[in-house]
Each structure stands twice: as C-alpha cells, then as structure tokens.
Design brief:
CATH class: Alpha Beta
Order of helices and strands: EEHHHEEEHEHEEH
CATH superfamily: Gcn5-related N-acetyltransferase (GNAT)
Strand content: 25-35%
Mean pLDDT: 94
Distance between the termini: 27 Å
CATH topology: Aminopeptidase
Number of domains: 1
Largest sheet: 8 strands, mixed
Low-confidence stretches: none
Length: 198
Amino acid sequence: MTMLLGRRIVLRQLVVTDFPQWREVRLRNVDWLTRWEPSRPPGAPDVISDREAFASRCSARQREQQLGIGYAFGIFIDGAFSGEINISSVQRGPFQSAYVGYWIDQARAGNSYMSEAVVVLARHAFENLGLHRLQISIIPRNAASRRVVEKLGLRDEGTARRYLEINGVWEDHIRFAITSEDWAERGEELLAAWVHPR
C-alpha cells in the first residue's frame, strides 16, 4: 500500500475497514461538501451509508492505480481520517497530465492541511509517477479551495465556462496548474515550507 508522508499528515489508500470513520466524517460534513460535488447518478448506490458500495469504491480505486489511471488517497491527521485527495484521469503519451481533486473535514479546515497534502501529492506525481502537468479546477466562489492553491502559488490558467456539473448545475471553474518544470524550479521551496520538519 502506498503511503505518502507530510509534516502533519499521512496520505494512504482507503480500505474497507476505514468505512466507519469515512461515513462519520461524510455524514457530519454533508452540507459543507454537497454544494461542491457532482450529483449522484440516479440509482447509484450511496457510498456514504452502504458499506458494500464503499467496498466497491475502494476496489475501483485500487484497479485505477493498478492501471495507472488514478491514484486516490485518504488524508489522515493524528491517525484520524480527515478527507481525501486524488489524482484522476491520468493521460500518458505526449500529454502526461492529470487532474487533482480534494476535500477536507470542515472541523480540520483553515489549518493548511490541504496545502500540505497538495505538495505531498505533487512530489509523488512528478518524482514517482513521472507526470508533466497537474490541474486543479475550482468553482470561483469556493474561497476555501482557492486559498489552498493560492498559498502554493499555483498558476491561474483562466476560467473554463460551464466546465463541470456540480450539484445539478453546470459550473464555471478556474483552472490552476503546476508542471514538472515548475516543480524543478520550486519543489524544494514548497517542500521546505510545507513538508520537511521545521
């Protein structure tokens, strides 16, 4: 199992035994998260309340990793499940690019844990997976999520109109990106600021 270590966080794949903690955090954060997430397709199982659906989700994420098309991690703080971060839609060939998505328990928000998680994930993407580009797409009014990338100085590449369906509405998204060239130039600075012990 891949485990990525930060200064205060641990990123690792979720397994079926994480379901009770995952369910508790997701239920407690339903209002905090739903407004930023795609709608659940009609008839799709509810992974929040159904342990078997959660187990299938974990298996699907493991298959994505085996195929090299996605890498999903739970975020653990002081041993407690506190959110998720993932690399998805990995495209190889001349593109060598992927998307990053994340969410955190509202009780943990505002402590820069997610900025740390993005740096840990970027190091893995560029140094271990050999990717060239990561993109993070954020709804303009999602100030908390924007603060994550702004603190890291990721490049604003403009707004994509009606980019993703979120909670039943086609929403604009600001696209932020970092490339392997950026990482070569700024990686040590980011790791010193967010990951290495002080």
